[in-house]
Specification:
The chain has one domain: Nuclear Transport Factor 2, Chain: A (Roll). 37% of the residues lie in helices and 39% in strands. It is built from five helices and six strands; from the N terminus they run H-H-H-E-E-H-E-E-E-E-H. The protein has helices at 3-11, 18-30, 34-38, 60-72, 133-147; strands spanning 41-48, 56-58, 74-88, 91-102, 109-120, 123-130. A six-stranded mixed sheet has the order 2-1-6-5-4-3, with helices on both faces.
């Protein structure tokens, strides 16, 4: 278990809630603390952004690079997790809402998508984003059922 997750678990004895871990991961992102955020991942994670047209990122260094590049293009950036749901067997589903202001712009960006996160015990092993929120939920449910 990573150092940050041991700290999370120590703060709330007996807490093994994967949805709460996903929430804490996003808090690290919002603070732009990428070193803390990457500690929520296992040693060889995969972040599949292919449904969003961005490819697949394998390994901690590429995943951390994705996070830094994504957030680094904004002067202001907020993330909100809606419908955060542990669907069972290590699978978490959520609707993600991002609001941001691109660097050097006065305009605002609003983005919503579904995310499916698969945990290996208490670390993120695989994440996949979907532009279609209902497709993400169906994928999460199928995956959880298949892992049971």
């Amino acid at each position: 278990m990573s150092e940050i997750l041991r700290d999370v678990m120590a703060e709330e004895p007996g807490n093994s809630d994967l949805a709460e871990l996903a929430r804490r991961f996003c808090e690290c992102l919002e603070r732009r603390d990428y070193d803390a955020a990457i500690k929520f991942f296992d040693l060889n994670p995969v972040w599949d952004m292919s449904e969003m047209g961005m490819g697949i990122f394998e390994g901690r260094v590429p995943v951390q690079g994705l996070l830094e590049d994504w957030n680094g293009s904004y002067d202001e950036w907020e993330i909100e997790l809606e419908n955060l749901l542990d669907v069972g067997n290590g699978v978490v589903y959520t609707v993600v809402r991002e609001r941001a202001r691109p660097t050097g712009s006065t305009g605002r960006v609003h983005l919503s998508y579904g995310a499916v996160v698969v945990f290996a015990e208490t670390l993120i092993a695989h994440a996949k984003t979907y532009p279609d929120i209902e497709e993400a939920r169906a994928a999460a449910e199928r995956l959880a059922e298949g892992r049971g």
